[in-house]
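Review the following:
>
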Amino acid sequence: MGKRKFATEPDERAEPVKKVKKQEKYLREKLKRQQNREFRGRIAKEHGAEEPKTNEQIDAEREKKREEKKARKLARAERKQEEKKQEAERIAQQKERKKFKAEKRKALKEARRLKKAESAQVEDKEAEKDQNGASNDEGDDLKESDPEEPQRKKKKSKGEKKSKKSKVDEEEEPKKKKSKEEKKDKEEKKAKKDKKETESKSIPVDGLDDDQQSKYLRLMGAKKSSKDIKVTKNADKASTKEDLERQYEQGINLKQNKRTGLGGL
């Protein structure tokens, strides 16, 4: 190869040599790849591997995969469409239920209002009847006191007056009966209490000074003790002042008074 005088001038002798070398290199590598592929295929076949697939088989498999992917995509779209439809139905049913509940609440509220109004009307009527009954009773009282009063007021029918009066009597009868029973019970309790108090009190002794009377009362109270039965066994039989004084004198002279602290009286 000779030197080129100028760099811009092409070297006509160098170009074919480069192309030949590149082509030889490519052919060597291609042969090497082919040999390696054949070697790997032979080894795989010896170990029970399948034969390598042809281009037609590979294209068929790819086409099958594309079809399967397309079918999955279509099924997914249909499933989403069905889900949207179900969601729309659910929302519609929910709105319908809410509407039904609102109408039900409104109807119940209206029914309660009507019931309350009816009860209020009934109460007003009853109050008016009671007021009329009271005014009629007052009119009867005024009629008894003032003979000219019936002429100034409207006359009521006898049947209406009788029914109102009987109604009032029926209402008052249980109260009167209950008050009578309570009064009777109170009187019986009071009588029993008074009887018990009179029985428990000591019989008063007139004509004795305070010292003698206190000693006598001590003597009368000694009957509660078993040791002083002999002294006071006849005390309850006394009925007059003379009997009490005699028993008192007898009690003073008894020797047993030493045990009660009354000795030496």
Summary: DSSP finds eight helices and no strands in the chain. The radius of gyration is 67 Å.
